[in-house]
Write a structure and sequence with these properties.
Helices cover 52% and strands 13% of the residues. The chain is an alpha/beta fold and 212 residues long. The structure holds thymidine-5'-phosphate.
């Protein structure tokens, strides 16, 4: 049984997940000096998962990556990160803050790439090893302003995808929010406004939800 807490940040590109999750990590570290906090991300977070990230995020291949291959690569990175970083920390009672998770696979591979959520859940079942979040913070922003926040793109192959791709991904997030495993664990955060405004909204939610 895990004793720690697993908090996931989710959202489409440009919603500020990475910035916010890192700021929240520092905030919680300061607020609870006796607790240990870990910040991690997907795909990546361990030596092997980082290598898989290089392959799955690469833009340099001439050959187009098959969506099934893509889904398995994200799941294999996840299998490694969960076993090397997330589970060992949860078992020690630590708090893991993660930038992305299997929920991105449901949205991007399941809906935007149209593989379907059932297949994504099946592919991810053994990767997840029953490691589900205690809290999902979904940063919600309209697609156009999100795509304009190009500072988040950083060589990501998804940057070239269309508005339609991200519309489908958002439908995927909506589906994911209804998963029975996430009942009462999903919080949608209004990600409009500046970094500090969004940060304050997240803090409000955490102060209500987290008790250590
Ligand atoms: P990021 O680390 O900058 O958020 O980039 C990760 C990219 O990978 C992002 O565009 C979403 C994509 N991705 C998937 O398509 N499926 C997944 O399961 C994960 C974790 C990420």
């Amino acid at each position: 049984m895990s004793k720690g807490k697993y908090i996931i940040f989710e959202g489409i590109v440009g919603t500020g997940k990475s910035t916010q999750s890192k700021q929240i990590y520092s905030y919680l570290e300061d607020k609870y000096p006796n607790k240990k906090f870990i910040w991690t991300f997907e795909p990546g977070g361990s030596e092997i998962a980082d290598e898989i990230r290089r392959v799955v995020q690469a833009t340099e291949y001439e050959e187009k990556m098959d969506p099934i291959c893509e889904a398995y690569l994200y799941a294999s990175s996840r299998a490694q990160t969960i076993r090397k970083i997330i589970k060992p920390n949860l078992e020690k009672g630590n708090i893991v803050i993660a930038d992305r998770s299997f929920l991105t696979s449901i949205a991007y591979q399941g809906f935007a790439r149209e593989l379907g959520p059932e297949l994504i859940l099946k592919i991810n079942e053994s990767a997840l090893d029953d490691c589900f979040p205690d809290l999902v913070l979904f940063l919600d922003l309209d697609i156009k302003p999100a795509l304009q926040r190009t500072f988040d793109f950083d060589g990501d192959k998804f940057e070239k995808e269309s508005v339609d791709f991200f519309k489908k991904a958002l439908k995927g997030y909506k589906y994911a929010s209804q998963l029975s495993k996430l009942k009462n664990k999903w919080v949608t955060i209004n990600a409009r406004g500046n970094i500090d405004e969004v940060y304050q909204r997240i803090i409000k939610v955490l102060n209500k939800r987290l008790e250590f």
